[in-house]
Amino acid sequence: MNWTVTLAGVAQTTNEKSIVFTELNGTYLYNVSPVAGYSTNYSGHVQVNGGPVSVAIAFSNSTYPAIFTAAGLPRNTSWSVNATEQDTGKLSTGSSIGTTLTIDLLNGTYSLTATGPPGYYPELSVMKIIVDGAKASTVSIFFEPPVCAGCGGVRSPTFIPLSIYVLAGITVAVIVAAVVIALAIRGRRPPPVPPDHS
C-alpha cells in the first residue's frame, strides 16, 4: 500500500517501509497524507543537526467506540450524528431510533453535528471529541422541541443562549450602579444658602 510524506514542500511516495529525505541542518515540518481506513500522526517537526534522524510513522486501522445518548425526542424517532475527522476530512455517520447510538472511529479529532426531526434543535454536550485508544468517548445530545406542532421548524422560545442572559445581567447591573452613584452624588450636595434679607 502506498503512503506519502511531504517534507519542506517536497512529497515522496512509496510502498516500502521507509522514505528518505536529504536536508541541511534545520527544523522541518512534515505532513503524512491520509491513507483510507488508517489513522496516524499526520504532522510534526523534525530537527536535522549534523546526522541522520529517524521519525516513526505508526499507521493503525483499529477503531474505538464513540457513544451518543439522546434526550428530548418522542419514542421511536430517528436521529443521526456526523463525525468529521479534522486532519483527513473523513466523515463517519450513524443513526438511531433509540436513545443510544455508537459510531466506531479511528484515532483522531472529530467535529460533531447532530440532526433530529424537523423543528427539533440539537444541543450537544461537546462539539469536538478526541479518540485516542480504547477508552470510549461519550456525548450527550438534548433535542430542544419546537414551540408547537406544525410550526414549520420554529424553535421553542424557551431556548435563549446563555450569552443573552449574561448580557441582560450586565445591563441591569450597570443601570443599578448608575442610579446608586447618582443618588450618592445628590446626597452630598451642600444645603441651599438661605436668602439674605438684610
Structure report:
With 198 residues, the chain is mainly β. Among the domains are: 3-48, no CATH class; 63-144, Carboxypeptidase-like, regulatory domain (Immunoglobulin-like). It has one helix at 162-187; strands spanning 3-7, 10-14, 26-32, 43-48, 63-71, 79-85, 91-96, 100-106, 108-115, 121-124, 128-131, 137-144. The strands form three sheets. It has a four-stranded antiparallel beta sheet, with no helix packed on it. It has a four-stranded mixed beta sheet with strand order 8-5-12-10, with no helix packed on it. Strand 6 (79-85) and strand 7 form a beta hairpin. The longest helix has 26 residues, at 162-187. The protein is flat and about 95 Å long. It starts with a strand and ends in an 11-residue tail after the last helix.
Condensed summary:
Helices cover 13% and strands 38% of the residues.
Provide the descriptors you would attach to this structure in a database record:
mainly beta, 12 strands, four-stranded mixed sheet, Immunoglobulin-like, 1 helix
